[in-house]
Amino acid sequence: MTSFHKPTVSLQCLGYLRRLAGIPTSSKTSPFHGQIRGKKKTARQPHTINVRLLEDIRGYGRKGSIIPVAPGRMRNIYYPQRKAEYVTAAQMRTISPTDILADRDFNFGNEQVEEDTKLEEDNRVVDVKMKLLTMERASELIETLVPQEMVFYKVPIANPKPEPEQPEPLGNSINAIGGAVPQQRTPEPMPLVTRIFGSVSTADMVDSIKAVLGQDEEGARVVLNAEDIQIVEGEKSEELDIEGDRLKTLGEYKIEIRLKGVDPIRRTVSIRAQEEEP
What we know:
By secondary structure, this protein is of the alpha+beta class. The protein is 26% helix and 19% strand. It is built from seven helices and ten strands. The strands form three sheets. It has a four-stranded mixed beta sheet. A three-stranded antiparallel beta sheet has the order 2-1-3. A three-stranded antiparallel beta sheet has the order 5-8-7. It is elongated, with a radius of gyration of 48 Å. It starts with 13 loop residues before the first helix and ends in a 5-residue tail after the last strand. The mean pLDDT is 75.
């Protein structure tokens, strides 16, 4: 009985069978073997429709012009807002080609917008100049509205208590012969300067002055900066603590409000103790 020999190599793919049978696998001889690419999609051309403008539209054209626009713009903006109307094919045949614009007018209306913008800026400059006060008038308002004394309340820093004076021994105060008692040295008084937590700056003074001026319609237009405030002296300048534009001790100080071109205005700044809450 004839027995068939079983192949020892397993068949794994169709390509192996082709090679075993001697069938060529080239794409030229086997049209179904190579990859077939699909047709390339042509690029979408921009699509527009002709419409007639019912009003002047900046950047597009004048009323009555027939211009091409995107269908979406016409459908969503111009037609609902009655800014343009559709032009049918029958109407297009009756219109002269010279009346149809090839493209929108990007410059239409921009000249008027530039003129309006310039006119608005000029009016704004004039309005600002009218609102600003002269230095003479600003000085009069400050002299009239700002009180002679401005009071600030600050929490003081407690001074250390002085040490009690130790009495001298009796033998040192009276000599043995019964002579006169030598004169005792009087202790130097402690300075009465009381420092405060924080400070009062010229910016704080400006805020206080502006709060007063703001209650008047004309006074609210006064322009005042921290540089216009100058601390000139204190009640006891050798005992008060002045650091540039900041005051750090209780007491009274003299300041000058110096506006350009006018005489300085002198006022008093008082820093008083504010009791801490328990």
